[in-house]
Amino acid sequence: MGIFGGIKSIGRSISSGICAAGSSIKNGVKKTCTTIKSGVKKAKKKISNVWGNFSGKAQFEEAKRIQGKFTKRFSKAKEDFNTQTELLFNKIEKSIENINNNKSTIHKKLLPEMVEKLSKIKDIKIPKEFEIEEYQRNTIKLDRIKSRDELFKIDFDKHKFKTFVQATFTFGFYTRKKSKETLFAVKEEAKKIDNEIAKMKAEIKKLEGIVQALENTEHYFESVLNIYTRLLTRVDNSINTLYFKSIRFTHSLISSNFSLRMLPKVSQKEIENLITASKVLKNMAETKVSSMDKDTINEYQKEAKKSKDEIGKKLKVA
């Protein structure tokens, strides 16, 4: 047993040594392969860089990167622009619709009611019809971006063999020239894209200003209608009071066209204020807002606010 045990032990040692040697050789081979692969990659990269500089492909790659970047940027900007303008146009049209409704109330209800109550007042004429406004969606025209085929004077991706031959037989002069022209054209297009995006932003800002001005105008219209209705009610009460007083004292119906001098001073003042307010209201109703630009609409909203304040003062005075 001792002899055989020794032989087995020697065998295991030899086997273990062989396996260790094999593992060491295997690891060495792996490291060698990794080193070779790394060296090949570096060599390819150097060769690629040399070829890129020689043929002009390096400039072509830069042009391709810039073109891809601004194409995505412009597409995103245009998509956002279309979404925002649609939203703003809807708001503008809604404000115009509300202003039209207010004008309709002025022309068809308030002013006729005022004329009916003050039939002696002949300097205010009420048109039977008035113009309904519509907003025309006029926005800026954007230039399209040029396609790759339009910008690229040479294409190393599509025509690999052709560009290789051109670079080889012209010592790179032709391909470098075309690559330089391509890069220049792409950079110029990138500048144009910046200008187009700036135009979009300016248009959005302009439309936002119009929306704000129209919403303010809409608010002033509603305020003026509310104030005018209250003023009209007070005048109506004064006239009815005079009417019933006349019946009480004369025991008979008075003429429907009695003199304003029969009213108290306060009521006369109310009627004067109503006439002034009616003229202001009529002017507001006849002013078109849908065809105005941003600056004109801003001026109109200031006038609308002034009119609202003026009619409000008449109500307080009365």
List keywords for this structure.
7 helices, mainly alpha, 80% helix
Helix-strand layout with pairing:
Blueprint: H1 2-55, H2 57-117, H3 148-151, H4 160-169, H5 173-250, H6 265-286, H7 294-317
Helix pairs in contact: 2-5, 2-6, 5-6, 5-7, 6-7
How can the largest sheet be summarized?
A: none
Find the structural class using helix and strand composition. Answer: mainly alpha
Low-confidence stretches: 120-124
The overall strand count is: 0
Distance between the termini: 133 Å
Global morphology: rod-shaped
Order of helices and strands: HHHHHHH
Could you please describe the fold and organization of this structure?
With 318 residues, the protein is mostly helical. It has one domain. 80% of the residues lie in helices and 0% in strands. The chain is rod-shaped and about 125 Å long.
Quick rundown:
The chain is mainly α. It has seven helices and no strands.
